């Protein structure tokens, strides 16, 4: 997975992109079940060259996020499916209701970056919620090149930025 060369479009090194990143990594972490990490990568690769999105289901503790499973949700942004995503709200609602009283909840949103680094964009920041974890899967020529997880440090309206979060299985 790590030997794939990831294209870095100019905008990814622009000030606007650098501004969405906090200077320090998070001290929390994201733990995936083997199956969930694998599944998230398969969904991202299968959707190439479009951007795919979905929800992470699991639990949150003081150490961070534990992902039990992932669910693909339709990307309803069809005009810019190659570089934007918008979760289908009906898909979100259905999963949220299904999880009621299950002990598990929606703990984050994943999406893919086709032929781009797994680094959040200014658009990603505008739709990010504090308390959710945001894995990004970089897919290059149909193959998963890298996965990074991100959280926001504060409410975005209060100046929150993305912090990188280590992830493990
Ligand atoms: Zn993105």
Write the layout of secondary structure elements.
Layout: H1 15-18, E1 29-32, H2 34-47, E2 53-61, E3 64-73, H3 89-99, E4 105-114, H4 122-126, E5 134-140, E6 143-152, E7 162-165, E8 167-168
Parallel strand pairs: 1-3, 1-8, 4-5
Antiparallel strand pairs: 2-3, 2-4, 5-6, 6-7
Bound molecules: zinc ion.
Zinc ion (ZN) binds near residues 111 and 120.
What does this structure look like?
The chain is 20% helix and 33% strand. The model has no long low-confidence stretch (mean pLDDT 94). The protein has helices at residues 15-18, 34-47, 89-99, 122-126; strands spanning 29-32, 53-61, 64-73, 105-114, 134-140, 143-152, 162-165, 167-168. The chain is an alpha/beta fold and 169 residues long. It is globular. Strands 7-6-5-4-2-3-1-8 form an 8-stranded mixed β-sheet. Strand 2 and strand 3 form a beta hairpin. Residues 111, 113, 120-121, 124, 136 line the site of zinc ion (ZN).
């Amino acid at each position: 997975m790590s030997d794939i060369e990831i294209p870095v479009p100019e905008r990814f090194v622009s000030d606007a992109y650098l501004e969405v990143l906090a200077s320090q990594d998070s001290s929390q972490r994201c733990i995936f079940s083997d199956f969930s990490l694998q599944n998230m990568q398969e969904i991202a690769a299968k959707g190439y060259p479009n951007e795919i999105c979905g929800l992470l289901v699991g639990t949150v503790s003081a150490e961070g996020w534990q992902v039990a499973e992932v669910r693909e949700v339709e990307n309803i942004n069809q005009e810019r499916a190659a570089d934007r995503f918008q979760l289908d709200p009906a898909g979100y609602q259905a999963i949220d209701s299904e999880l009621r009283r299950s002990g598990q909840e929606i703990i984050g949103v994943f999406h893919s970056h086709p032929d781009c680094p797994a680094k959040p964009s200014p658009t990603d920041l505008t739709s990010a919620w504090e308390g959710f974890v945001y894995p990004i899967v970089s897919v290059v020529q149909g193959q998963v090149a890298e996965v990074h997880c991100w959280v926001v440090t504060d409410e975005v309206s209060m100046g929150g930025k993305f912090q990188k979060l280590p992830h493990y299985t």
